[in-house]
Every structure is written in C-alpha cells, then in structure tokens.
C-alpha cells in the first residue's frame, strides 16, 4: 500500500511539469496582465443576449443553450477518395442527411420540386449522427493517393451549396471561399467536369489554407486553370461573407471579433457584407443567381444586408432582383435541422440541443435585369 501511495506521489510530481522546468525558465502567470477582465466571449454573450432576445423572443433561451454547448459536425464525404468510408460511417450509426431522408416524414411539396435540388447534386453526401447523438467523428485519414476521406464542417453549411443549384454549363464564383468547406461541397457534384469554378478570397493566409484543403481532397486533374481558378467573376455566385461567426465568438477568445480592439471592424461588418453582396450581384449576369450566406443570427447582417442590396442595386445600377424561395429546401431537411420560423427574406438554421448545427442564414436572389 505504501509503495502504491509513493508511486502515485511521484507520478503526480512528474505530471506537474513545473518540476521539470529549470527555475530560471518558470513563468509566474499574471492574471491581471494575461487575462482580459472582459474576455471577448463574454462581451459576445452580452451583445447576443441584448440583441437576440429581442430578435428571437422565446426561441433565444434554447438557441443560447445550444450555442454554448458543443456543436455538431457533419462529415462531407470526399467522392475523390478511394476508401470505402461511407459503409464504415454508416456502420457507426451515421446517415447521409441529403439522400437518406426517410425519417424526415411526409413531404408537403410536389415530388418534382423536392427532387430538383437533389437531381443536380446526387453526389454530395454529408453524414451526420442521429438527432441527440453527440458522438464525435475521428479525423479523416488519407487514402493510397493521399486524398482525405471526409471534411468535417457544420452540416448546415452544405445547404447554401444545394440552394445554389449548380447545373451543367454554369460558371460558378465562390466570392469568399477560404478555408474552402463550401468550395469542396460544390466540387463533389457529379457535373463538376461540365462547369467552371472560380474561387476568391482576400486573405492571403486563408487562401493558403484553401489551397491546402483543395490539394488534400481533390485530384490534380480537377485543379487545372481550365477547371478552377483561384481569384475572382459570373453566373451562379456564392457570397459567404465574413460575419460575427456567432458560435466562434461565444466559445473562443482567440481571433474573436468581440475583442475590444476589433470594435471598429465589427461595426463595419454590415457595410463590408453589403459591398460583397453588391459585388456578387454585379458579377452575375441577368438570369444568374446569387446565394448570400452567413453564420450569424443577426438580422442586421442577414435580412438587413439583403434588403439594402436589393434597394441599392435597383437605385444605383438599375438591376432588378427577386428573392427565390428556399422553402422546398427547408421542407426537405426539416427533421435534420431547426429552421427559424417565418423569416420574411431567406431561411436560417438555428442551433438546437438535439440538432446542434448552425447558425446558417441563406438568401437566394435571381438577377432579372
Ligand atoms: C465565412 S468565411 C468563408 C468560409 C468559406 N466559404 C467556407 O465555406 O469555408 C468569409 C471569408 O471572407 C473573406 N473576406 C473578407 N473580406 C473579403 C473581401 N473583401 N473579398 C473577398 N473575401 C473576403 C475572409 O478572408 C474569409 O475567408
């Protein structure tokens, strides 16, 4: 017994790394200097409590609990990978929420409308654990060619790509593309060889991450200049703008937009979002479609930006736009995600403890002139 106690004592001492650090290198942590009195995560929570309790009313307490809990991921399957991970993941209890929707019950929309989104993206597969199951995915492993088998992302982030509805012959512009989750979803489409994709992002470091993601998941023959260009323009435009990234802001103090030194940047966000959406609208041809998306619950950054963009495009550029209903899409996935009820413009996945995805806001506009 005494021996056992001694061993435990020694172990505890060894795991306390301070005893392995020479005294002159030890740093005494200074709380006042190293820990902000009001960490950005707390500032974000105060801000969200003030604005979202008004905006979401009685929904806010449950959305708040979900946002402060561990988020749920989806595994976007990499169709270019040669390993049979789909069967493995299904054996673990996952299901592809896009094609396997039995538990979504009866659909109230005509079959042709519901199937429309899927007919264009039969290959996009995103696996999720069932409602209420918070099992984590293991990191993806490379196949014999070095391509990773799946990409972990908020499963709701696939919805803007489905909503964009890319078809053969389209030119696609992903205006704010890094680190590349949505680009990768778009590239999984069966018709990838029949359209051109242009991806753009201002941030050099994030564009490097985007390149790394693409090279880890997509074979070289699809990354040639004729198929994919990493810069900026055309018909279908995905405008996935920078926003207050509500979940990140609540959970991580690093790189947090609620940090006091970033107040100006945060206040300028709606203006930047408006400029990006207008750039996307101008880049689209008449008849083209623009998909605006964010990962915030904020009305100012969502419907507010879209309303202003519709107005300014008409007044300043003579461009007429109409909002395209995404209701068929939300009906399709209503048992996988929780959608905000009755938004007058666009649709929004709201976090819920049983399906802790989002927030993801999306609004589709069609350029008429
Ligand atoms: C929400 S993230 C995009 C996430 C990406 N679509 C994905 O699914 O992985 C927003 C991106 O917008 C980029 N960004 C910020 N200002 C921009 C600008 N003026 N033009 C283009 N991209 C911009 C940021 O660098 C950031 O990578």
Describe this entry's structure for a reader.
By secondary structure, the protein is α/β, with parallel strands linked by helices. The chain has one domain (40-367): Rossmann fold, CATH 3.40.50. It is 37% helix and 15% strand. It contains 13 helices and 12 strands. The chain has helices at residues 2-15, 31-34, 40-56, 60-67, 85-91, 111-120, 158-164, 181-187, 204-217, 246-251, 263-283, 303-317, 327-332, and strands at residues 74-77, 95-96, 126-128, 150-153, 171-174, 196-199, 228-230, 234-240, 284-294, 321-324, 347-349, 360-367. Strands 5, 6, 7, 8, 9, 10, 11 and 12 form an 8-stranded mixed beta sheet that branches. Helix 9 (204-217) links the parallel strand 6 (196-199) and strand 7. The longest helix is centred in the last third of the chain and has 21 residues, at 263-283. It is globular and about 50 Å long. Residues 1-21 and 102-115 have low confidence and may be disordered. It binds S-adenosylmethionine. The site of S-adenosylmethionine (SAM) has 17 residues, from helix 8. It is found in: Mitochondrion. It catalyses: a cytidine in mRNA + S-adenosyl-L-methionine = a 5-methylcytidine in mRNA + S-adenosyl-L-homocysteine + H(+); a cytidine in rRNA + S-adenosyl-L-methionine = a 5-methylcytidine in rRNA + S-adenosyl-L-homocysteine + H(+).
